[in-house]
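Kindly inspect the following:
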Amino acid sequence: MFTPLAALSGLAALLASAISIIAWSRRQFAGVRWLALLMASVAFWAAGAMCELSVTSIAAKLFWSKVEYLGTLTTPVLFLLLALDYNHISLRRRGLALLFTIPAVCLLLAATNERHHLVWTSFQPSPSGHNLLIYGHGPAFWLGVAGYSYLMLLLGSLLLIRALHYFPAHFRGQSLTLMLSAVAPWFGNILYLTGAFPLQGLDPTPHSFAFTGLIFAIDLLYLRQLHLVPVARARAFEAMGDGVVVVDHQLRILDINPSGVHMLGGAPADWPGQPLPAPWLEASMLETGSHLELTTPDGGRILDIRAYEIEPFHKPARTRMLVMRDITQRRQAEDALREANLQLTDRLAQIETLQAALREQTLRDPLTHLFNRRYLDETFERERERAEREAKPIAVAMLDLDDFKRINDLHGHQVGDRVLQALARLLQQQSRAADIVCRLGGEEFMVVLPGSDAEQAQQRVEAWRRDFHRQEHAGEHPFRASFSCGIAALPGNGRALDELYRRADQALYQAKAAGKNCSVRAANGQ
């Protein structure tokens, strides 16, 4: 006898099966795997109820009741597992086995009810008709079936209430939807057990669970609320190192995480509705996309603040989210690094100065501060190449103090040093910027005269010689000193410095032989 009630149960079975298949294809999201298994169990329960409502004999109805008990006993447990998974609470295999222990025992008792009548005690046709049968229930039903099922439903509902209470306001719509859908099985089963349902003998619980699955499926397919895992979002929000504060247009706090409480330096008992405890942060600063870097009034920390506009829930209210990052340590590290860089730059400048001084010392004669032979060797080649490129002469004048040993013997080495310094001073004063004045060692000096030929060089040397000879030097008795000079020039006397040095030295020897205190030019050629 296929009745409309049997058709209704069949429709519920088809709906639950469809939901189970769709949910299984999206089982990677939180709670959806258990939703698929729950709907499969509901489909089995509703299909068994359809068969039980379609047969007429008590024996056949009792058989199908035993078959549908597989769905009746597992559905509440799967509902609890769905709620646990939705809250990201996982059970080990042993815990899962314990949850299904009592349903397994009750299923065994239902299968052997004829021996003990602990599940069903009596059977009588329903006065409501429609081929319904009213079952009398024994202690195993009230304790193991109804009692345990209600315990599972109660724990699952409490978990959904927990999510409803735990999440921020803008996430609570999802949990509220799931919570309302969980009320349907409670309502249907209570009507059945109390006999208050108009059709006595009809258990609407599988139909109620099919309705619950439909609500979950709507969330999954259309609202996509199960794609957002509020538990994970809420926990991430609480655990973030950055401070997050949601404020309205009057800077009243709508939501805040613990890091935000710590950064703002306060802990009011009830944050929502409280004004932002940061009078130094004005609303005018918080335009959308603004980026601020502020120091708290106590100077204790530096905050990097970014403002983002949130789609307002109640227009024209303007809701903004402030993301705050404590950059105090980073700024301190940057300041320390900047100070270290300044110190390093200063140290490098000092080192460069010292290196320049050391180089200067290696190129200067310490007594007269004139360039030495090393500097002459480094620079002469450059001057020679320039002279040849510009077709200009270069002259070198080698000077040697006359009777310098006698000056040291008669007046002492300190006086001799002052004579050397006097000659060096005169040469520096009367030489051009392009001239290179060097002390070769002892009483020997050399002056490189770029752009001058031998005759021009001798004219200048003679002027130096006369000026120097007019100077009086203080010793044991005032005395005058003189120098002799040999002059060689490029290109007539050679190209290399050694060649010019040798020819100038030969001319100097001639000047000494000619009576000293004079200058001699080297003859052209070798």
